[in-house]
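Following up on my earlier thread - several people asked me to post the actual chain instead of describing it. Fair enough. Here it is, all 306 residues.
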Amino acid sequence: MRIAILGATSQIARDLIFSFSGTADDHLHLFARRPEVVAEWLASAKLSGRYQAESFSEFAKQEFDAVINFVGAGDPVQIAKMGGEIFEVTLRFDEMVLDYLQSHPACRYLFLSSGAAYGSSFKEPANWDTPAVVRINDLSPHEWYGVAKLHAECRHRAHLELNIFDIRVFNYFSRTQDINARFLITDMLRAIRDNVVLKTSPEYIVRDYLHPSDFYRMVRALLIVPAGNAAVDCYSKAPIDKPNLLASMREKFGLRYEITEAMNSVNATGSKPNYYSLNTKAANYGYQPILTSLEGILRESESILH
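Reply from S.P.:
Thanks for posting it. Predicted structure:
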């Protein structure tokens, strides 16, 4: 299968490329705004002879069986820095693929969406009948990312004749994560590495962290199912709440932490107490996760810290 990876500089894209590298049947073509950065990564990952980095100007000139679009921002700080630009970037590259599909209707399109497409509340976890809520008369900057993803999904549903699957990623963690990023887990890992006390808020949150191997299972399942046009939510075998995650990181790695009210955190897409999904529609397409959130976190943290 000839697969185009758009936005190959992103962490989750690189993890997926590495997962694909274990098979011999797929031919990946890696596209990025900075192909030289992808080439450097390929060399460091010992994949230079396997794949080639290309600029987006070469995309429409080639034939692909599938396109996977990772273009965007995944780090909360990056999302905040992009601001309103997230709308233009998302639209530009999504339209590029939709134009390609018009002349290549047999091609399959996997679009990396986000749980943020549901909105920014998440007082309860998402489910199959959860509506997307947009405060249209009071739209805040932290909602722009989710609205950009929702807008793309709406465009995709309007093209039912095309083979498109939107993959809503909620939380994702791997050993390639930038430890300086502002996520709860990276805050924990820095505290462990630097032997300092983590100061964290008393806010109770539940998260469902997807492991790279399960993300690969999701993508592989959607690449081989019959043609369709739908959105699926990512999920692990089981989510994890903050108290149990803190306790597990203390038991496994000696994390020291202190609960304190006066904390500043980066919530680029809003504070979400239950940012995960109970919508298991992906199972209808053959997806079955292997790892729980905690199992995946401990496995990848072990690699980062040792």
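The chain has a mean pLDDT of 93. That should answer part of your original question.
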